[in-house]
Amino acid sequence: MAQTAVPSTSAAGERPAPVGIPLREILPWAVFAAVLGAVLIYFVGAEQGATSLIGGTWVHEFTHDGRHLLGFPCH
Q: Domain-by-domain residue ranges, the chain?
C-alpha cells in the first residue's frame, strides 16, 4: 500500500493547529545572526586601509577571494 506525504488528520477530519514559536526564543538568535553578519561584512568588505582595526595585510589576504566574489573592490 502506498503512503502519502500528507500527515494523517484527526478523527473529525481537521488538522491540528501549528505550534507557534515565541519571540523570546527567536530574538537572541536573530540578534546573534545580525551581529555575526555585520562582523563578517566588515571583515570582507571594509577591513582595509583607513578603517582597518587589525594591522598588517593578513586579513585582506584571507578574505581576498571573498571580496571579489561579493563584488567589493580591493585593488
A: 43-75
